[in-house]
Amino acid sequence: MVLTLVLSIFVSLIFLCDKLYHQLTAKLPPGPWPWPVIGNIVDITPVRFRCFAEWAQVYGPIFSFYVGSRLNVVVNNAELAKEVLKDNDQNLANRFRTKPLNIMSKNGVDLIWADYGPHYVKVRKLCNLELFTPKRLEALRPIREDEVTAMIENIFKDCTKHGNVSKILMLRSYLGSVAFNNITRLAFGKRFMNSEGEVDEQGEELKAIVTNGIKIGGKLSLGEFVPWLRWVFKDDDEALEAQVRRLDKFTRTMMEEYTLARKKTGETKQHFVDALFTLQKEYDLSDDTVIGLLSDMIAAGTDTVAITVEWAMAELVKNPRVQQKVQEELNRVFGSDCTVNESDISKLSYLQHVVKESLRLHPPTPLMLPHMAGNNAKVGGYNIPKGSIVHVNVWALGRDSRIWKDPLQFWPERYMKEDVDMKGHDYRLLPFGSGRRVCPGTNLAINLVTSMLAHLLHHFVWSLPIGVEVEDIDMMESPGTVTYMQTPLHVVPTPRLPLHLYTHVE
User: Fold this and answer.
1) Which of the four, 150, 419, 439, 441, has the lowest number of CB atoms within 10 Å?
2) Do the Cβ atoms of 453 and 355 come closer than 8 Å?
3) pTM metric for this prediction
4) Which cofactors are reported in the record for this sequence (predicted)?
């Protein structure tokens, strides 16, 4: 017993001395002192980006910490974000993949989790030149408009049906249906939900796969970073293997259905499965890469859109002045006897400011996805060794009082005075990332979010339930890689247009 204690103390001292020597000689960013073996994992609170913003107040805008023996670096202001995403873009463009993510992405043969190199460049080129072109996005516009107008009809039916005295709706379920149906139709050319909102068996399986994948991928497991503890987490490994099997089975079934349908008709479609099959030989894509790209689209396009719209609606309910101003703009552009047409949304400049302001305060991926140093780099005057994990705290960038006046205030008018790009060129506002790893579906996401908000605000006035005050709205985020509102938003919609404009025509 005594010998064990002495050995433990000895090992701890060696670890601490090694870390101290490394910190002093390598000129690493400052940060909290790590515990032996486990690092700082016990110090990190569940909502990590808030935790890191608090640490930045103590250690400065760039700091480091350890998870196990793995060095992590976090930057929390625009100047340092530029150094990471532009000045050191190529050196820091790799992806850190946990064991679950490595297995689910088949060692990074997709786009999101691929390291920077020839494969990533090839797949990125495919996305930019083939999948997310303005021409293809325009061709897919009827799908987006169809799903958004279906949402409006469902909300109208539910808030006006007999017996619904309170008229209170949980908005998230409607937003989630639009995002889910839109992305499945774009990816597979197939709707898994009927007009009554009932999801078929395949749809339920896909929802479960997406939800479970986000849960597994976002889990911070000590076994990942302390190898000799991995045996403790064998249940996680079994769940991971089951997830991979489910995903492969589902995607291959979709691909087989598509192949049979195309053989029968000989027709090509605009959806992504068709595009990927058409281009598979030209771009030399393996089946695993095709599956990985489809999985990326489903994972990235389902939750983030619903999250963004829910946060924006929460701010609009809290700020009736802003909501009324958007509705006045909608009346000017579309009139009170006409529905919204996505092709004219570019005329809604104030609504676009609202979207931008919501993304500043509530980015759906507040820490982006983790970058990894493929080579030694220097950021903020500190050394970033090869293999380090690098995080950009986008949430903190949007709330930096040095560059944003009244940063906690929801004030879309700030963009009337200064136009701020949100597609990766202005490092104060990075909801979609920047540099080599910027989201290729940015324009698609912005189109759908803006269209959903335009329809919601044109068709209804939104208010809080009776007895609920603005201060009662829970504006805390849920833990995870993507951040829903911790408490779903409950609201009361009141129709504001002629009744015939609430009927969905397929």
Assistant:
1) 419
2) yes
3) 0.90
4) heme
Of 498, 472, 476, the closest CA to residue 487 belongs to: 476
Q: Distances from the Cα of 382 to the Cαs of 69, 198, 367, 377, 497, in angstroms?
A: 19, 54, 20, 8, 58
Which phi and psi (to 5°) does residue 475 adopt?
A: -100, 25
What DSSP string describes 340-356?
Answer: --GGGGGG-HHHHHHHH
Beta bridge mates, 390: 73, 371
- List the pLDDT tens digit at each of the 506 positions of the chain: 445 444 544 544 455 455 544 554 579 999 999 999 889 989 999 999 999 999 999 999 999 999 988 999 999 999 999 999 999 999 999 999 877 778 778 889 999 999 999 999 999 999 999 999 999 889 889 999 999 999 999 999 999 987 777 789 999 999 999 998 998 888 888 888 877 778 888 888 888 887 777 666 556 565 565 655 555 555 566 777 777 788 888 888 888 887 787 777 766 666 788 888 889 999 999 989 998 898 888 888 888 999 999 999 999 999 999 999 999 999 999 998 889 988 899 999 999 999 999 999 999 999 999 999 999 999 999 999 999 999 999 999 999 999 999 999 999 999 999 989 999 999 999 999 999 999 999 999 999 999 999 999 999 999 999 999 999 999 999 998 899 999 999 999 999 999 999 886 55
CA angle 42, 45, 47 (to 5 degrees): 150
Rounded Cα–Cα distance for residues 143 and 127 (Å):
19
**Contact indicator for 461, 446 with CB cutoff of 8 Å:** no
How far apart are the two ends of the chain, measured CA to CA in Å? Answer: 75
Question: In the structure, how many helices (H) and strands (E) does the chain have?
Answer: 18, 10
Residues whose CB falls within 8 Å of the CB of residue 165, separated by 6 or more in sequence, listed in order: none
Going by C-alpha positions, the residue among 469, 506, 464, 502 that lies closest to residue 171 is: 464
Among 424, 494, 443, 496, CA closest to 465: 494
| Alpha-helix runs per DSSP H in 460-498 | none
3-state secondary structure 103-165: HHCCCCCCCCCCCCCHHHHHHHHHHHHHHCCHHHHHHCHHHHHHHHHHHHHHHHHHHHCCCCC
> What is the C-alpha separation between 128 and 355, in angstroms, rounded?
24
Q: Which of 20, 13, 55, 65 is nearest to 36 (CA)?
A: 13
Structure tokens at 163: 């017996």
Q: Is 439 annotated as a binding residue?
A: yes
Exposed/middle/buried for 260, CB within 10 Å: 0-12, 13-18, 19+?
A: exposed
CB-based contact 353:413 (threshold 8 Å) = yes
